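Agenda item 2: zinc ion complex prediction
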Amino acid sequence: MTSLVLLLGLAAALAEFLGGWLIAVRGRWPQRAQVILLALGAGFVLALVFIELIPTSFEAIGASASMFALAGFSTLHLFEHTLVGHLHFGEETHKEKMASHLAGISAFSGLMVHAFFDGLSISVGIQFNMLLGLLVFAAVLLHKFPEGLTIGSIMLSAGFSRQTVIRAALAIGGATVLGAASVVVLPEIDRVWLGRILAFSAGTVLYVGATDLIPEINKCEERMPPLMVFGGIGLFYVSDLMLQKVLG
Ligand SMILES: [Zn+2]
Ligand SMILES: [Zn+2]
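Presented output:
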């Protein structure tokens, strides 16, 4: 199980790195692919939270799950937007706000914390059951490539060299793997604390879907991307049913 979780963490990190690398070597943005992935990812992530993560957390620890979910939601808010001046998903177009290296590093740190919790969510999900873990992995994977594009674009706008952009993408991928590596200690943790960690990660995943991904899609002037969010919800529903069949 440990090696499976690490493998999933590595796969997610690879998708992230590819996004950052693409920006570093080409400096260009695959707009169309990005917005479709963001929209599918948003729908998938939100369906995962409401259909699986919240009910499973409540089953595990009862009403106190809501406090831990709120703590998870607030933690990402603190690291992505309170301590950090300027961070959003999608292409970094506000060059004036990214004029200093410091702005770039602060946005980078926010994404590092986010990426760590992406990895942790996969690990705690699998700790609960294989179905939940694989669904969390799919949700993370769907938004990892656009996340890599995001970090690449931030670092490039902040005036860093291509080499540094690639290193930043590697580091963010590394944070995901580090979060997944929590699989080594999680089995030692008792069931109640595991439930609390799951509820916490439900809050972080909700934050990613509702505040990192959805606003980027809503900024779009076309009707297609917002519609694709429903596609993501449908995709989750089908994946959930299929996995349930396969895993029995
Ligand atoms: Zn911006
Ligand atoms: Zn993420």
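Discussion summary: The helical segments are 2-26, 31-61, 65-82, 101-128, 130-157, 162-180, 191-218, 224-247.
Owner for follow-up: CH.
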